[in-house]
Amino acid sequence: MLRRLLLTAAASAAALSALPSAAQAAPGPVAPADRLTITVAGTEGADGTYVLDCHRTGGTHPQAEKACERLDAVTIYGKDPFAKTPPGAMCTMQYGGPATARVTGTWQGRPVNATYDRSDGCEISRWNHLVPVLPDTSARA
User: Fold this and answer.
1) Distances in Å between the alpha carbon of 70 and those of 62, 109, 128, 129?
2) What's the sign of the alpha-carbon dihedral 106, 109, 114, 118?
3) Would the pLDDT of 63 be above 50?
């Protein structure tokens, strides 16, 4: 009986020692990347399409590190940092210029498909809330 227990313990130890290499060989689930594609038009000097990778900062965005920092700062649990202006919101009737932008991709594991313009006070504020993800047009408008 004692011999059987020792053999079982030895076999268990051998199986457990082999476990880490087997676990490394099989890749686990990969966390979704925080990757956005930002297309901007109607600005002077900032038009184009940019890729922004965060939480391993990279891509073609001209201010990737600052843009990722801004997105982290405005990301609050339970709130969409890319949310549209609520229907019926009271917005000042001012024009902020012809700039438009579209942001698509994934942020915090959720799909993003948001459009931006500067057609009234609410939309100007919404745009400015994401600078430098979106270009600062205040000097251009």
Assistant:
1) 14, 17, 11, 9
2) negative
3) yes
Q: Is 45 helix (H, G, I), strand (E, B) or coil?
A: coil
| Closest to 63 in 3D by CA, of 33, 31, 97, 40 | 40
Does residue 97 come out as left (phi exceeding 0), alpha (psi in the -120 to 50 range) or beta?
Answer: left
* Residue 138: partners with Cβ closer than 8 Å, 6 or more residues away: 128
Q: What is the pTM of this model?
A: 0.75
Question: Token pair for residue 105?
Answer: 């991709």
pLDDT for position 138: 78
pLDDT reported for residue 141:
43
- At position 125, the amino acid (one-letter code) is S
Sheet order of strands, 34-41 included = 58-59, 48-54, 34-41, 100-107, 110-117
SS3 128: helix
